[in-house]
């Protein structure tokens, strides 16, 4: 039985694995190879690694984990159950991995608006985060899709990056105060539904996707978004726990979770009277 099973081989999971392996813990990472940022050109706001392609960063991370004795298994975790002394995770090839503690680092997936051109441009000309993509579209013609309150927030944020920002209301209704705020930042407001991305004539379109944590493999534990960080023996890091976590934040969360797990395992080994 491993000390720790980590489901998810993104920066959060790999950082947790690296920290645990350096503490001489036996650790295995189950990696399905489906990172949320796979279509992005580069990782940003990660000190000394700004602009690194996501796949390259993860490949380097896997090598570091393995260099300290950690194992990385390519596979999809299908189900997880509690067993005596820990957890058992079943993979899509029928194999099973057992561990004393469990880290959920499976990330999330983005449900995009059903508008022609959005899915095709996602991660390149269709973006969502000013801190992840804003510099790359600075001074360009930026459109913002007004789906829900996030549209207003995004339009205001992107107005810091370009003087040519248009909020397409689509199905959004503005209050007078919201209209005044947008106009004070020079944001144009256009009513009506959007037919397609191409019809807008913008260089980049900003959307606010619905974010869904990948928790299906943990249904057998009763894990939900509400109790994800309070389930005994289970730690969660990255977008599985915090939808807005950037890559460097997920990495930091992985390190902190690993430190807590290591101490938890040490405490378990102490005499009951300590």
Overview of the structural elements:
It contains seven helices and 14 strands. The strands form three sheets. Strands 1, 2, 3, 4, 5, 6 and 14 form a seven-stranded mixed sheet that branches. A five-stranded parallel sheet has the order 8-12-9-10-11. α1 (11-22) runs parallel beside α2 and α1 packs parallel to α7 (247-269). 27% of the residues lie in helices and 23% in strands. The protein has helices at 11-22, 54-67, 118-121, 130-133, 150-158, 176-184, 247-269; strands at 2-7, 27-31, 71-74, 77-83, 86-91, 96-104, 108-111, 126-127, 142-145, 165-168, 188-190, 204-206, 210-213, 234-236. The model has no long low-confidence stretch (mean pLDDT 95). By secondary structure, the protein is α/β, with parallel strands linked by helices. The protein has two domains: 2-110 and 210-269, 3-Layer(bba) Sandwich (FAD/NAD(P)-binding domain); 113-206, 3-Layer(bba) Sandwich (FAD/NAD(P)-binding domain). It is elongated.
